[in-house]
Amino acid sequence: MKKKIIAIILGCITAFGVLSGCGQGVETSSTSSENTNNELVFVNYRDIRDLNPHLYAGEMYAQSMLYDTLVSITDDGYEGCLAESWTISEDGRIYTFKIREGVTFSDGAVCDANAILANFNAIIENKERHTWLEMMNLLVGVSAPDENTFVIELSEPYYPMLTELGCIRPFAMISPNCMINGSTKDGVNGYIGTGPYVLTDFVTDEYAVFERNENYWGELPAIEKITVKVIPDNQTRIMALESGEIDLIFGKNMLDADAISQYVDSEKFSVSLSEPTSTRHIVLNTTNDILSDTTVRQALQYATNRQAISDGIFYGLEEPADTLYAKTVPYCDVELTPYEYNADTAAQMLDEAGWTMGSDGIRQKDGKKLELELLYNSDSVTEKTIAEYLQSEYLKLGISINIHGEEEQSYRDSMKAGNFDMVFNICWGMPYDPQSSLAAMRAPVYGDYAAQLGLADKAEIDAAITEILTTTDETERQELYSFVLTRLHEDAVYIPLTYECNKALYTSDLQGVHFGTDQYDVPFADMYFQ
Amino acid sequence: MRRYIIRRILLAIPLLLAISFVCFMFINLIPSNPAEVALRVQQMPVITDAAIAEMEEMLGLNKPFLVRYFDWVIGCLQGDFGISYVNPARTVAGEILRSLPATLELAGASFVIVLVLSIPIGFLCAVYKDGWFDRIMRGTVFVSTAMPPYWVGLLLMWGIGVKLGWLPTNGSGSWRHLILPAFTVALSYISTYIRLIRNNMLENMKQDYVLYANVRGLPQKAIWVKHVLKNSMHTCIVAMGMSIPQLISGTIVVENVFSWPGLGTLCISSIFNRDYPVIQTYVLLIGVLFVVFNLLFDILQTVSDPRLRKED
């Protein structure tokens, strides 16, 4: 009987072997092992979704592959895209664009001023959705006097106008044939643009295939075909890269510092990190009784060891941040004295502010304990880790921090309503920083407005931000930026922690991987295989 | 008997209504404004009051709670579960129908693996009780029950997908993609059914009919297969039937790990995206599946077991 059992077990093993080991190599639609040096397999954590460029639901990297805007934002400034050139009237209100000739959508439709006008009309029809862009509020009208000229008129000058026009959404151009009765508000019947790639196939939540647009008006990209696979799980993405099923992982939230650190010295895979894209920081609510005192807020700045957070939590991959915006952000290279970590200075400042050490190790003033609540997004492990670290560090100085996590929506609601003492936040990032994020500080849309309400110079700061947006004088604009950034820095409303950066992990055969001016863009057009 | 079946079906109706109400209520109890959530998941950089008001009207959120609930229930009965917040161009019913076949494929394959492995192993464990095979299998069952599917999945992916390169680590499209996720889902059920079959067989072996069969001189193999195994399978079949909705709902984590494009992946991505209409429908669907399968196998058991009919 024992022989029979052994025979059965061997049978099972053989059957499993037959099932699983019919052949070596993995059978996928396109893998790096099958690469003919012109196919790239990219991965994203979710589906491309609705790529209607006039709405906000789709993945921006995919929209950038399909569509073009009037102008492009590059490291060297603005460059013509669908508009070959442009002029701005002396009063800064009227923009006249000369539309590039000979450009067609991938369905053959001509992309002239009339097609661009049709796109703008569709965008304006849904204006309420786009009023977060100041230019939509200032827009007087658009017109196409002839097929090569497109005109935008504003009610007053607005300097970030070209930056906003360079945003892939909502100002990317879709073929008028895809519009439903001239509208894109309620959906489109195709994703046809003038961009370097065309969408040829997609299966929801599985993959999307983009092929090179052979009629692209610009320089043809080297990669002919890009397959985007959907892999929601972090670990699975890494394993798929290891097994050769994908070639590139790209994005801020696609890789954690731990995973990146494993591949820094790898020969098989390469790691790239971008310049700072946005700043991770803590917002202090100045309407709070304790935090209304500038000295206390400044003491918290000195009590925060940014280098330790950078080294201990981000393995040095995110640089410690000294200011709300990195110096690489336009207009933000302002001379500000950083609050260098110094626990003694912090303790001395708290003493001076009247917060003396109590017998229980917590500082007190007029019978009130120095207790604050730090709110974080419970979906973010990083924020929780930083919160726990700060809790223990601040306690050494007699500051009691209660950390409190809320799920993302609730966290955002609390932030917007100003229901926090201290809260984690991240700047908007490029290309929206600094102009759009500063503009948003003037209204109760994020936590900044509520947090700044206790500042004596809040009205002055808001007025300066409004002036920044409308001034046409470059020197004056820089002076105003310097004023606003200096005030916010000295008011110590924000505790900068680290500069977040974009990350890429890819097979070493892949070349030309770099980071664009838009943090959500993946510059596929510059990539090629060695 | 007929009266019993009709009574059970009628009792299921208020239960289904209660499930639908709970699904709807819990989603609506979330303090955030769903219109704002919808705009946020559509990645609106700044959410203005005008945009919220427009979205509220579009989603019918300006109506009273009960009106919205009955609208939703009537819609559900007509197959209209609303639209997805993440992608307003897609309906929830469309999303569920798109994902369901992949989940059924995975659950079906797992079910086959469970049957193919648990019945012979359970049988052998009972026949060779306390032998080396039984001891090894008992140890294996103990370990595999304790291992979370997420971890098992990653381990299999690493070993078989990355190190050996035998099978793809993720995705779908061929039978090769199916093996790792199906085996991962099946593993915990295999352990359960091996124990169930083994224990049932051991119980049956103590019954008088086995003694009489032995006295009559029937071959031992025939007694085990034709009588003991057959009688032990009664309870197992009901338990296995009940595990079908469990298998469908239980694929949620494994699907996500293996990027299997089924209901589980849809549910997880909807949870992360706060796509409330999809989450609501998923919970309702799973609740309905449990009620229906419970009812079905209760009736089947009553039909197949004369003792239960008598009691009724």
TrEMBL record, chain A:
GO molecular function, one term: peptide transmembrane transporter activity
GO CC, one annotated term: ATP-binding cassette (ABC) transporter complex
GO biological process, one term: peptide transport
Keyword line: Signal
Domain Solute-binding protein family: 79-442
Protein name: Nickel transport system substrate-binding protein
Ranges in coiled-coil conformation: none
PROSITE patterns linked to this entry: PROKAR_LIPOPROTEIN
Signal sequence residues: 1-20
Pfam family, any one: SBP_bac_5
InterPro entries assigned to the protein according to its UniProt record, in alphabetical order: CntA-like, Peptide/Ni-bd, SBP_5, SBP_5_dom
Originating organism: Anaerotignum lactatifermentans DSM 14214
TrEMBL record, chain B:
Domain (ABC transmembrane type-1): residue spans on this chain: 100-297
One GO biological process term: transmembrane transport
Main location: membrane
Pfam families: BPD_transp_1 (PF00528), BPD_transp_1_N (PF19300)
Membrane topology: Multi-pass membrane protein
UniProt superkingdom: Bacteria
Subcellular location: Cell membrane
PROSITE patterns documented for this protein: ABC_TM1
Record GO cellular component, one term: plasma membrane
UniProt entry keywords in alphabetical sequence: Cell membrane, Membrane, Transmembrane, Transmembrane helix, Transport
Residue intervals passing through the bilayer: 9-30, 106-128, 140-158, 178-197, 236-258, 278-300
Protein family membership: Belongs to the binding-protein-dependent transport system permease family.
Protein name from the UniProt record: Nickel transport system permease protein
